[in-house]
Design brief:
By secondary structure, the chain is α+β, with helices and mostly antiparallel strands. The protein has helices at about 5-15, 20-30, 80-85; strands at about 35-40, 45-50, 60-65. Helix 1 packs across helix 2. The longest helix is centred in the first third of the chain and has 14 residues, at about 5-15. One of its GO terms (biological process) is response to oxidative stress. Complex I is composed of 45 different subunits. It is found in: Mitochondrion inner membrane.
């Protein structure tokens, strides 16, 4: 790769990430300088990119919306886009959507480990109860 082509690639990265400041913020957020073609966007705001200039296995990626900040994980990716990211299918859901069946549930992210996680209601009495100090008569 020539030196001129390397500078052209740096220019593509800066252009796609909205300037030098945007490129720095993207590097801070995802630890990579990447540019590519926008393949599609899901209803949660995730944007999916592809660039065959990169190695196989690194040429498809997702960029999460800024609304989630740094609290993003793989469970926020719907199943149809997961298929495309993991090379299970070649066509993205924006080109070849999955058929919608009546038994299919809508995608829900995994909330384990957050303050919004599911906690079941317990009907059994605890074995150890907290001590309550006696009240003083005033």
């Amino acid at each position: 790769m020539s030196l001129l082509q390397k500078f052209a690639n740096i220019g593509k990265v800066i252009k796609q990430n909205n300037g030098i400041v945007g490129t720095y913020l993207k590097l801070f957020r995802i630890d990579a300088f990447k540019w590519g073609d926008l393949v599609g966007e899901d209803k949660y705001g995730n944007k999916y990119y592809q660039n065959n200039y990169y190695f196989y296995g690194r040429n498809r990626w997702v960029e999460f919306p800024l609304s989630v900040g740094h609290d993003y994980d793989a469970s926020q990716i719907p199943a149809e886009w997961h298929r495309w990211l993991q090379y299970i299918c070649d066509e993205p859901p924006s080109q070849l959507p999955l058929p919608k069946r009546k038994w299919m549930a809508d995608h829900v992210e995994n909330l384990s480990g957050t303050d919004r996680c599911y906690v079941p209601y317990s009907t059994t009495r605890p074995k150890i109860e907290a001590w309550v100090p006696p009240k003083r008569n005033s």
